[in-house]
């Protein structure tokens, strides 16, 4: 396992790497190094023009994706106003602000109001809502486009590696429903990887 983690030394801006470290130390959730490594690898491989992100948080993943491919544009959705303001500062810091559209709204409401298609979608919002977002996200995804969802193993509870505490049972059950929906969705080809906190990677085939 240590050997595999060593391979997750991500080639990102040193300032971004340091900020990720600081935010993690302060208890602010950010995608794991292994998860970010895979996310950026997929961005570099697919070269998406239009990226949709559900869950801006403080803008670090969004900044990383934009830095990974210079010709991409990001639409990112976040409900928490404090996070939105922090993300705005970070987009300015990394000089990607001209390629970002920030939406401060409930994710379900926001995606229902979007009227353009995307080549790449990163789903990292409220885990219990993944199953509710899926149909609309498929509609927003171009054929050949990629949908990546983070935290689909949710601390090992989804796979059964860890016993699920009562307070997380609803989230875990909803993630399981989401994964079953992906499995049965004929418009998508999907793999689920035990990387970081679990990633599902889907490609729209029609």
Question: Can you walk me through this structure?
Answer:
The protein has about 210 residues and is of the alpha/beta class. It has one domain: Rossmann fold. The protein has 8 helices and 7 strands. It has helices at about 1-5, 15-25, 35-45, 60-70, 80-95, 105-115, 130-140, 170-185; strands at about 50-55, 75-80, 100-105, 120-125, 140-150, 190-195, 200-205. The chain has a 7-stranded mixed sheet, with helices on both faces. A hairpin with a 5-residue loop joins strand 6 and strand 7. The radius of gyration is 16 Å and the shape is globular.
Features:
alpha/beta, globular, 21% strand, seven-stranded mixed beta sheet, 206 residues, 42% helix, Rossmann fold, single chain, 8 helices
Question: How would you summarize what this structure contains?
Answer:
The chain is of the alpha/beta class. The protein has one domain: Rossmann fold, CATH 3.40.50.150.
Supply the CATH architecture: 3-Layer(aba) Sandwich
Task: Using the coordinates above, name the CATH class.
Answer: Alpha Beta
Tally of individual helices: 8
Strand order of the largest sheet: 3-2-1-4-5-7-6
Radius of gyration using CA atoms only: 16 Å
Total discrete domains: 1
List the helices and strands and how they pair.
Layout: H1 2-6, H2 14-25, H3 33-46, E1 50-54, H4 60-68, E2 73-78, H5 81-93, E3 100-104, H6 107-113, E4 118-123, H7 130-140, E5 141-150, H8 169-184, E6 188-193, E7 199-204
Parallel strand pairs: 1-2, 1-4, 2-3, 4-5
Antiparallel strand pairs: 5-7, 6-7
């Amino acid at each position: 396992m240590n050997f595999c983690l060593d391979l997750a030394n991500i080639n990102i801006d040193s300032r971004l790497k340091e900020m990720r470290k600081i935010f993690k130390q302060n208890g602010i959730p950010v995608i794991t190094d292994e998860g970010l490594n895979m996310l950026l690898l997929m961005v570099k491989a697919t070269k998406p023009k239009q990226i949709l992100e559900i869950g801006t948080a403080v803008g670090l993943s969004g900044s990383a994706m934009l830095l990974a491919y210079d010709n991409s544009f990001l639409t990112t959705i976040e409900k928490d106003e404090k996070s939105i303001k922090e993300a705005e500062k970070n987009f300015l810091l990394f000089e990607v602000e001209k390629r970002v559209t920030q939406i401060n709204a409930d994710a379900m409401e926001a995606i229902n109001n979007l009227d353009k298609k995307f080549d790449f979608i990163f789903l990292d919002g409220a885990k219990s809502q993944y199953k509710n977002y899926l149909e609309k996200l498929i509609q927003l995804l171009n054929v050949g486009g990629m949908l990546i969802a983070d935290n689909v193993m949710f601390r090992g509870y989804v796979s059964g590696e860890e016993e699920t505490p009562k307070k997380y049972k609803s989230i875990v059950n909803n993630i399981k429903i989401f994964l079953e929906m992906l499995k049965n969705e004929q418009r998508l080809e999907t793999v689920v990887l035990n990387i970081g906190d679990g990633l599902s990677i889907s490609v729209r085939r029609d």
